[in-house]
Design brief:
By secondary structure, the protein is of the alpha+beta class. The chain has a domain at 2-70 and 87-119: Fumarylacetoacetate hydrolase, domain 2, CATH 3.90.850.10. The protein contains three helices and nine strands; from the N terminus they run βαββαβββαβββ.
């Protein structure tokens, strides 16, 4: 999942301030790739731009009333489930990832779009396949690989 900030988030913010700064929760599929193969450690992953190859976003959702740590997702390839997870799979709560980042970069500006980290394991897909991430409260986001 990703968050779009409605207001700035200070470096030393706690989880409550992070929740208040979030204007929208967004269903997302993170695209990962590695120029070094799939055997790597943390320093190599960082040197490879954290394996970032892109992101596919769904529609913004008002996070009010959503228990983000309990928000579940099922990842499907061509309709078949391949993995699932919950928000708590990211540092215990996706807001913890948001506060960590705000602290690491000395605060985040209003309007920032921040991904929280993966709720599922990365899963390889091939040309012609369709990937859908179905979130319990945030809805679906779909990617067709060409």
């Amino acid at each position: 999942m990703a968050f779009r900030l409605a207001s700035p988030l200070a470096a030393d913010a706690g989880r409550r301030a992070a929740r208040e700064a979030v204007g929208a929760a967004v269903p997302a599929i993170e695209l990962v790739d590695s120029r070094t193969g799939w055997s790597f450690d943390a320093p190599l992953a960082v040197a490879d731009n954290s394996l970032d190859a892109g992101i596919v976003l769904g529609s913004d959702v008002d996070p009010a009333g959503i228990a983000l740590g309990d928000e579940s997702v099922t990842l499907r390839v061509d309709g078949s489930p391949v993995d699932s997870g919950v928000g708590a799979d990211v540092l215990g709560n996706p807001l913890a990832a948001l506060t960590w980042l705000a602290d690491a970069v000395d605060g985040l500006a209003a309007g920032a779009l921040v991904t929280t980290g993966s709720l599922t394991e990365p899963f390889p897909v091939d040309a012609g396949e369709t990937v859908t991430a179905s979130f319990a409260s945030l809805g679906d986001v779909t990617l067709r690989v060409e």
